[in-house]
Request: fold
Amino acid sequence: MLLLSKTDPASLATINYALILLGGAFLYVARYLYQKRANLKKTGIETSGIVYRFQKQDDDNESVTYAPVFRFVTFSEEVVFVQHWLGSGRPSLRVGQEVRILYNPLNPQEYVLNYRLVDWKALLCALVGIVLIVGTLSAHFLG
Reply:
C-alpha cells in the first residue's frame, strides 16, 4: 500500500478490513442500482419527456453544477417533474430536448433515463468495489 509501509501491522490490518468493507458496500450499491433498473424494465412504463430546466446545485463555494429537471406525463395523465441526481458544469442536454424515460407507475418519481443503455452508475460502483477488494487482497498477499 502507498504511504503505509511504516504503519504498524494492527493499523494496516484495520485499514485493509475497512477497504474490503468499503469495496463490499460499493458492490452492494451496484447490485441495488442494477436490480432497480431491471425491475423497472419489467414493470415500468415507457414514455418520452423533455428537459424542462436546469436546477443550480451549490455543492461548495468553488463549483456550481446544474442538474436537469425532466417533465413527463404518466399513463394516468399526471404531469411529473423529476430532478436528475447528477449535475454538471456544462450540461450535455439542452432545455426542450426529448428524452426516453421508464418510470414506476406506482411511484413516478422512481425512474431511469435512456434505460436501454448501460447503467453507468451501477457499472462504476461495481468497478470501484472490485478494485478496492482485489487491490487490498493482492497488496496483502503479494506485498
In short: The longest helix spans residues 9-43.
